[in-house]
Amino acid sequence: MAVPKRRTSKSRRDKRRTHKVLTPPTISTCKKCGEPKLPHHICEKCGTYNEKQILTVKE
């Protein structure tokens, strides 16, 4: 059986965990209505993408 010979130090443990971090999603604003939206997605409020009307949204 594989058993560690030495205890893993706090420094070595933390160095291994440096990349395990969550980043918040980037949020941009719609150019037409100013609502927050995800980049490269259709605005759910007004239905535009790249300043072009894609969807008709019921109010």
TrEMBL record:
GO terms for biological process: translation. Pfam families: Ribosomal_L32p. This is Large ribosomal subunit protein bL32. The gene is rpmF. Keywords: Ribonucleoprotein, Ribosomal protein. The keyword Membrane does not apply. Residues 1-21 are annotated as: Disordered. InterPro entries: Ribosomal_bL32, Ribosomal_bL32_bact, Ribosomal_zn-bd. Belongs to the bacterial ribosomal protein bL32 family. Residues 1-20 have a biased composition (Basic residues). SUPFAM superfamilies: Zn-binding ribosomal proteins (SSF57829). One of its GO terms (molecular function) is structural constituent of ribosome. GO terms for cellular component: large ribosomal subunit.
